[in-house]
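User: Predict the complex with fe (iii) ion.
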Amino acid sequence: MLAAAASWYFAKGFAATLEPTPACADAGATPAQTPGPFFKPRSPERKSLREAGMEGTPIVIEGQVRSTRCKPVAGALVDFWQADAKGNYDNEGFRLRGHQYTDDSGRYRLETIVPGLYPGRTRHFHVRVQPPNRAVLTTQLYFPGEPGNKRDGIFNPKLVLDLREIGVKTGRFDFVVEAA
Ligand code: FE
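Assistant: Here is the predicted structure with fe (iii) ion placed in the model:
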């Protein structure tokens, strides 16, 4: 009897406080993935990784960092690193590495190039996301319809970019993290 009353109360309370943002509420936290061997700390702060004469197809990666309660996270660190068009990482310098902080709406936007392929992996970006004073989420982002996705044991369909051509190739991804 008590249990039934309690669960009724809980269900009613839950429904009353649930915000009408099912896409976010359903998503859960963004899955973590291995950083791989090529992460380097202290990347430069910048919103474009493109450089004069750099090979590769331009792409914009943009989206929002939200908490698991669907609130935008301002001032979150978003640190990208990736292979160049030939599939090589710059391990001496900081080519194709850079970090930025989300704006007041929790948004980030990165101008870069489509990463090249290297043996054993499908096409991917690496990224670390860290809300202020919270743990780092390390993960990777993938391309839809990429033939290598099926053969890559690390690939996760939850981490696929929403890819469009809006003048320039644009991939959207919203990170959902543990934050206030
Ligand atoms: Fe990689």
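Strands lie at 58-67, 77-81, 97-101, 107-113, 124-130, 137-142, 162-166, 168-172, 175-177.
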